[in-house]
Amino acid sequence: MTAPLFGFHPVREALRRRAADVVEVRIARGRSGARRQEIEALCREAGIPVRIVSDEELHAESRGVDNGFLLRLRGTAERRRGGDPDLQVLLEDVQDPRNLGAILRVCEGAGVGEVLIRDRGSAPLSAVAVKASAGASEWLPLSRVPNAASAIAEHKRAGFWVYGLAAGGVAPWEVDLTGKVLLCLGGEGSGLRSLTQRSCDALVGLPMLGRVESLNVATAAAAALYEAVRQRRAGRRGKRPAPEESPARVLRDDERSG
Q: What's the predicted TM-score (pTM) here?
């Protein structure tokens, strides 16, 4: 059995997405209102047992992050692939589970087809991360990768252009974010590792016009991804790096055709 899910949004999305895998739902006795009614209705429709427990019991199991709702699953079901398979995100060293959840929420909203997470140094998809994603983690295909550089090389062989989000990079609206794109995001504080930056075709960054030096990684991800959404809906607006501007490009057109 997998770890339980906590919070209204994760519980609701799990009931909507994979009710057949739900073992039970627990609701805190003190929880009332429209949200409780909605969860109970979804459970009745799917024939899922609901246990009403004390607030203290639920809080003890969730360490206070449940908002009155807990759900248990039999196992991990495959997530829906409803996003754009040509727009993907790689996360490296995102250690704060709340940041991880917030990024997943942004990715799902922007229609990202898959999120790759570098295994070592990254936060697990814990109950805190799932709750912070507001249920988005239930709808996103997620993959753990052992090495960012290898994942980047594999995507390049598949025809993806790879951009790393980093301070000092070119503004995302000046780069072509249509077609096959992998956007790489680094962790809190240190950002992308130097090898990962060197493996990217180009670095993109958000111009900081105020007095703070940088944005939270989830906020920066939202800005960059929704620029990609704008371009992909309106047509190409930026440009690809020229070969001499992209020494990390490991495969050229002639190599691909060989």
A: 0.66
**Residue keyed to tokens 């960059």:** 224
- Condensed to tens digits (0 to 9), the pLDDT of residues 223-245 reads 999 999 999 988 765 566 665 55
pLDDT digits (tens, 9 = 90+) for 205-226: 988 877 666 678 899 999 999 9
Choose among 133, 135, 155: nearest CA to 145.
155
Pairwise CA distance, residues 117 & 39, whole Å: 31
